[in-house]
Amino acid sequence: MSIVTGFSVRAFLLAGAALTPTMAMAQTAASDAQAGQTAPAAQADDLQDIVVTGQTTRDRPLITSSADITYATREDIDRRAPRSTADMLELVPGIFVEATAGEASNNYSVRGLQGGGQRFVQLEEDGMPILYGGGGADFFFQQDLTIDRLEAVKGGSSGVLTVNGAGATINFISKRPNFNEFEGAVRLTGMNYGLKRADFYYSAPLAENLAFNFGGYVQSSPGVRRNPFDYAGYRIKGALEYRLPGGGSIRLSGRRGDIETAYYASSPYRFENGEPASIPGFDIQRDNIGGDAFSSIRVPVSTYVDASGYRPFRYRDGIRSLYNQARLDVDVPVSDALNLFARARYIDYTYDFNGLFPGSGTGNAGLASAVNYLTPGATSPINDLLTRGQAAFPTATRFGIRNIRTGEVIGSNQTAALNALNGNGFLQRTTLNHDRIDGRDLGINAGATWAFEAGSIKNSLTVGGMYYNVKRRQNQSATASVVNDVRNNSDVYDIVALNGANGVIGSLTDSGLVSYGDWGNGIRERNDEAVSLYANDEIALGDHLRIDGGIRWEQDSAVALDGRNAAAADASRRIVAANGGFEQLVPVGQGGVLTTVGSTFAGQYDVRRRKQDKIAWTVGANYLITPNLSIYGRYADGFQTNNVDPITTIKLYEAGVRYQYARIFSGSVTVFRTNFDDQNYNFANPTNPSQQQNINADLRTKGIEIDVMVRPVKFFSVDFQGVFQDPKLVNLQIDGATQAGFEGNRPERTPAQLWTVTPSFSLPNGLGEIYGRYKFIGQIFADAGNGVALPSYGVTSAGVNLNLTPQLQLSINAENIFNVVGLTEGNPRQGQTQAITNGYFYARGIVGPTYGGSLTFRF
After folding, report:
1. Is the confidence at residue 200, as pLDDT, over 80?
2. How far is the C-alpha of 32 from the C-alpha of 247, rounded, in Å?
3. Does 730 map to a domain?
4. Which of 10, 106, 184, 298 has its CA at 20 to 30 Å from residue 734's CA atom?
5. Contact by Cβ (8 Å): 520, 691
6. Is residue 393, in this structure, part of any structural domain at all?
């Protein structure tokens, strides 16, 4: 479902109005324009499908494009049966997806970029970024029946025709209102893990040139892993479109979402016969550390953050994403050759993130036996706390744990009971990460397209400008950690001081909290005001040669505000810390032996300002050898803005061949080289998580991308898509210092190969289809030091679509049928040189078998 749609082939023809720079909408043309329908599949060839993403010429089919473009229909999306937005990105060859977090907050990367590089992949809806910065867009978007198809372009023109899309642009294109007749659909979906979802879509004409559509979904789901909580919400979208008498259109649209979703991070694993496996008492394929004990925990925090001195962590709320968007799209044809366009959208949004991070900060060392936890000395992961406890309770004979839920106390001398705890005898440190972001994002894209034709020469020139004004306020204060056991729906434990009879004489913790302010004061704000000017020209010289080039200049005026730690002048309810600064005392009445809330926000900011500008440009060419065979080549020089941090540059070289033979064979092969310069990001210092360290490196990747569909007989087809690449790190520095031993390493969480095979059987008499899917992910490394290798794995899926009546369709699908263990990353907060301790480690893994289905009624 790539450049070739092996199962459902449709030609999308463009309306008379010229296209926007990002080619937002595949508008209908000629007789189909008024009906709002697509041409029948039988009348189209795969490579003749007209795409609108990544190019600016009308009616330009895939085979003549000079960019690496992917096209996936609504049927392709349904066949993938995505559990998240990230799942849909697997329809694009070369996108490595780490869809292990749940429905939102997943990671994805492209062409050798290290895992978690999603800010270089711009997600768009109808040709405009969901968020200016790229990363985080899946908090606010999920496919539904309002989406008609997916189009993507990797590198190339992506970095010119949109902002922050130098790696790739994934464009989700909406259905347009139906001007001819009433149209509607309802879909009910259920999954074995507890998802209950209802989608709906409705469109109808209101007058001769006025129509609307409206759709979305409501759902309730505990997430793909076991969870005592159920998360619910909705997303809706509507549009009102007026067609101008002389052609063109004005469309006003809006969308709103308010939805909660589950979140999953790292889990503890062990190696068994060289393969990752479950720890006894915890099924890594189904279980979830989070549960009732984490429902709501009051965490002490600076009074500058909350006057009460507390900020609650609520696992029962998961990730709550709220947003409102208003959008206006205008296309006005001035003449047959000249078209004006304008796109504007405004979104205000919030996400309130309550996520558990087992092993964060302490890493593997935090996974230890309960006996070691309670025995003072270097082997205890909480020895500093025990030392405080010995001073606070000098008469204590020993320490123990008290289950917060049941009140059961077990002393350190009860070794048999401790070793039998949940069948594994382990305790662990788990970080409570409450991260809230409030933002607004204004985007405007306006310009003109001028088409010129003289004899055998056809030229299309698009010029325009983009403006983005973005503000994001973050509150990640009160990040703290607790001690909990290793099992599904785990229990949290207070560490208590005991007398000789194991009677409690005092508690070292309150609600199991063993540390406060783990990740710094957590208060920051980022503002961007960005202006872009761009031009893209595409010229056809006769019927065979097409040359295009584009350029975009962007200037970003950025401001970064970082919360300042309390200064000596503001010492009310503060004590002098070891570093000479001040720390705020915990609220009066807070139990335990911890006296301060850790890093303290002073109510003031350190402000950095930076104005940067950069030029992105690209040039490409396509030669159509025959109507079914073409070759193309492209060079692109793109970039990523990073607020006040240095701009990252990305250079891409690629060449490819596309070929189609009747309906028997269709495909493409692309060779590429990608250079990412000054790839820069922060990570937590593994020995002091409140301190951020900086990594800066250049990445070099060369590879080959294959996308082929073979249909040997009418009722059977096989689709293969894959990337085989050799990514390497060069010039790596940590905190500005060159690091030995990293040169030539593989970037973290980047596979050298990933490929998918999808066979499909059409049932007789149009009854539907049966399909399978095998996805292979090659070995990856958990860290830039390549210290921990995560094994390759393959996942098998299958499904069936049955046309019960012309209007009623039943779809059933199953994912990871054979319960394969697959790890997408290690513990990202353990640093760049990870290790396996005593055979145990933390990682994020795919879920075990999931299955379900949907019933769709179209009317």
Report:
1. yes
2. 14
3. yes
4. 106
5. yes
6. no
Cα distances from 378 to residues 383, 384, 386, 507, 654, in angstroms, run 7, 9, 11, 21, 54
Residue 659: C-alpha distances to residues 44, 60, 72, 359 (Å): 15, 16, 18, 50
When the pLDDT of each residue in the chain is averaged and rounded to a whole number, the result is 88
Per-residue pLDDT, 56: 84
Segments forming the whole domain that contains residue 696? 62-174+221-232+257-357+433-479+518-579+588-858
Distance CA 116, CA 196 (A): 29
Number of domains in the chain: 1
Pairing outcome for strands 210-221 and 168-174:
unpaired
Helix, coil or strand: residue 859: coil
- Other CB atoms within a 10 A radius of the CB of residue 391 amount to 9
Q: What is the pLDDT of residues 464-491, one digit of tens each?
A: 999 999 999 999 998 999 999 999 999 9
Q: What is the DSSP letter of 405?
A: T
Q: For residues 643 and 686, what is the distance between their CA atoms, to the nearest angstrom?
A: 25
In a domain, 446, yes or no: yes
User: Beta strands 121-125 and 168-174: pairing type?
Assistant: parallel
Q: Which amino acid is at 406?
A: T
Q: Please tell me the distance from the alpha carbon of residue 771 to that of residue 759, in angstroms, as a whole number.
A: 6
Question: What's the CA gap between 733 and 743, in Å, rounded?
Answer: 10
Distances in whole angstroms, Cα of residue 442 to Cα of each of 96, 324, 774, 854: 29, 12, 41, 36
Q: What are the φ and ψ backbone dihedral angles of 558, each rounded to 5 degrees? A: -115, 150
Give 484-527 as a DSSP string.
EESSTTPPBEEEEEE-TT--EEEES-BTTEEES-TT---EEEEE
- 3-state SS assignment for residue 202: strand
577: tokens are 């810390």
Evaluate if residue 669 carries a pLDDT over 50: yes
Task: For residue 672, give both structure tokens.
Answer: 């590429």
Enumerate the β-bridge partners of residue 767: none
Rounded mean pLDDT, 437-451: 97
pLDDT band at residue 13, thresholds of 50, 70 and 90? very low
d(CA 171, CA 191): 27
- Say if CB 526 and CB 472 are below 8 A apart: yes
Per-residue pLDDT band for 688 (boundaries 50, 70, 90) equals low
Contact 613, 619 (CB under 8 A): no
SS (H, E, C) 112-166: CCCCCCHHHEEEEECCEECCCCCCCHHHCCCCCCCEEEEEEEECCCHHHHCCCCC
pLDDT of residue 41: 32
Can you give the CATH number for the domain in which 324 is found?
2.40.170.20
Q: What kind and span of H or E run contains 33?
A: helix 32-35
- Give 235-299 as a 3 state SS string: EEEEEEEEECCCCCEEEEEEEEEEEEECECCCEEEEEECCEEECECCECCCCCCCCCHHHCCEEE
**Three-point CA angle 450, 3, 638, nearest 5°:** 60
Distance CA 342, CA 404 (A): 58
Q: Please, which residues have CB within 8 angstroms of residue 748's CB and are 6 or more apart in sequence?
A: 114, 115, 780, 781, 782, 783, 784, 825, 832
Report the share of the chain in percent with pLDDT over 90: 71
Contact 840, 270 (CB under 8 A): yes
At 676, which amino acid appears? Answer: F
CA 617 to each of CA 98, 155, 443, 551, 633: distance values in angstroms, whole numbers, following the listed order = 30, 11, 21, 4, 15
What is the model's pLDDT at position 136?
A: 87
